[in-house]
Amino acid sequence: MNIYDVIIIGAGPGGLACAVKSSQLGLRYVLLEKGVDVFQGIIDSYPRGKKVYPTIPKGETEPFAIPELMPDETHAPIEEYLKKIAACIQKYQIHVSLGEEFQEIKKDKGMFTLMTSRNHYRTHSVVLAFGSNIPVDLGIYGEAKTVARKLENSDDHLGAPTLVIGGGNAAADVVATLSEAKRAAGDATPVYWAHKMENFTINKDVARDLGEEILLGGHIKILQGAIPKIGELDEEGVEHLLIQTQAVDFGQGVKFQQWMSFPMKHVIACIGTQGPSRVFDRIGLQQITCTEGICKIGKTGDRLIMLTPDFQTSQKGIYAIGGAVSPAYIEIQEEGNFRERKHSNLIYTAVRDAVVAVSHIASVIFA
Ligand SMILES: Cc1cc2nc3c(=O)[nH]c(=O)nc-3n(C[C@H](O)[C@H](O)[C@H](O)COP(=O)(O)OP(=O)(O)OC[C@H]3O[C@@H](n4cnc5c(N)ncnc54)[C@H](O)[C@@H]3O)c2cc1C
Asked: Which are the contacts of 37, defined by CB distance < 8 A and separation ≥ 6?
């Protein structure tokens, strides 16, 4: 059986950057992707035509660690970015094993045996670059199976008011894309944008596009403090989502409530993903449960993985990077202290982590 220097799990920006760096440093690597394409996670979650931003998190001064993976400054759409990725794969002659899903890792005789849906590999190190793409449950009473998690095709929503749920960048992107498509088609039906909180949390680039769309006449209606509650069938057998848009407590158990109801086929829930904490548990990687005293970024009850500054986990030889360790992790510092580190889920960060992790792997292997 061949012995590899590194097995990389997931061919998103983080995993691909690992493969590029491994090839530059002469490491024997395998890049595994469970989907049918490179960047499957992005293909599945970005709306068609979505602009891709080369956002660099606040406080970072270094340019993109691998320039071939940087989205264009012109904010070109995802389809263009994927062409750039294909050119990068070609340039570095990267081999990706598609349709191969990671399942288990075992350590024996100072090395790892990694099991996938198709193969067994022996390797000195592993990089977990599988992102964080487990969708968060909508948490309503009743069924919501037909609620979309991304904008498949704007044309499907022309002529019908559409509800977008979520308070972050993904929801804002969908609202702007959908509004632009409706405006271009002369469709006056609104895009409702609902979030359970009063404040929306979006970054500068997304805010700029959304602001531009509103100024250009986009028909966007904002529902703050709006909570999806019930999924039900109407008398004609059409699935609806009921969202509570207002609640006033009159005391003694009496409440005034206002609701809106949308056909589920015109609801898109961009409510994020859950971290891969259960996978980390299965592999036996140490995590810390956030309590008020420990975490400022992680919410109470969140489990944050422990990583060295080189993105090595509590198991020597296993690294975790990119979306898989966002929005925060616990850094084990050289003096043995722990510190919560903010980790923005961005292409820049995944690529940067990959270069740091693979450089460390090479330094151990060639030592
Ligand atoms: C709607 C949306 C818009 C965004 N817009 C931007 C933007 O404009 N600019 C920006 O910088 N960032 C943006 N982001 C964030 C950016 O996409 C992520 O930070 C980035 O994709 C993280 O890269 P990653 O490689 O860590 O994970 P991913 O891109 O999630 O890649 C992980 C890969 O691993 C694969 N995988 C998962 N499990 C397994 C397994 N068991 N075995 C094998 N393979 C597996 C997945 O199929 C996937 O292809 C956006 C995110 C969303 C959701």
From this structure: 43, 98
Q: Are the beta carbons of 195 and 224 closer than 8 angstroms?
A: yes
Asked whether 42 lines ligand 1 (CB < 6 A), one says yes
Q: Closest Cα to atom 15, ligand 1: which residue? A: 346
CA R_g for the chain: 22
Interval 267-289 mean pLDDT: 89
User: What is the 119 CA–ligand 1 centroid distance (Å)?
Assistant: 24
Model-level pTM? 0.76
Q: What is the mean pLDDT of residues 29-53?
A: 92
Residue 222: pLDDT over 90 = yes
Go through the chain and tell me how many residues it has. Answer: 367
Q: Return all residues near 139 (Cβ < 8 A) that are at least 6 apart.
A: 228
Residue 150 is classified by DSSP as S
323 CA closest ligand 1 atom index = 26
Backbone φ, ψ for residue 6 (5° rounding): -150, 135
What domains sit in the chain, N to C, each tagged with a CATH number? 3-135+274-365 (3.50.50.60), 141-269 (3.50.50.60)
Q: Cβ(299)–Cβ(275) under 8 Å?
A: no
